Amino acid sequence: MIQHFNFKPLYENTQLPGWALTFFYKQQRYSAEYKKDGGITFIGEAPSPNDLATVEKMIHELMLFHVYD
Length: 69
Hints:
The protein is α+β, with helices and mostly antiparallel strands and 69 residues long. It contains 1 helix and 4 strands; from the N terminus they run ββββα. It has a 4-stranded antiparallel β-sheet with strand order 1-2-3-4, with helices on one face. The radius of gyration is 12 Å and the shape is globular.
């Protein structure tokens, strides 16, 4: 489960899509960028390949709830 999920716009003009994300997953802190096409680019370390699909799905759900609602 993702904990302490935070996001903020990448650009000063908030009409431009793109967000900086930070969150914890399995007691590890991650940073990523969420692109306008739904792509996720991890900054630094990414979750293990076994967890990556699960984490990306949770991020998409959180972004739909918080940003696109």
